[in-house]
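From the shared-data thread, chain only:
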Amino acid sequence: MLFWIVALVVVLAGAAVAYVRLAPSDPARWNQPIAATEDKDFGNGAIRVLPASDGLLARLDAAMQALPRTRVLAGSVADGRITYVTRTPTVGFPDYTTIEQTEGQIRILARARFGSSDMGLNAKRLKGLLATVQG
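Structure, as tokens:
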């Protein structure tokens, strides 16, 4: 009996990991305008707002695309909004980062898809991203 319980737990855990890795990412859901106008950290993400300058959006795009396990989900520099998916190394949890240039600002929203806490990972990623393009 114990064998079957353990087997069931292993199968369910495998199914959960498979769902996290294989669940589709809907660009229409994640590549949305960012309404925030000031910096904020929250349970599963972070927002950063800074003044726009010539070429900053393109530099942010290049820096995001250089991150490991990161790909563009939707948008482009020409569109003025880009959303990326970055996956954690082990399980492959997806985090979504949207960067847009609007109203003389660059607005960046990074958030986890699953769970209520990202343990500060998205805020840390944004700090590194901004240090890369401003440093």
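The chain has a mean pLDDT of 93.
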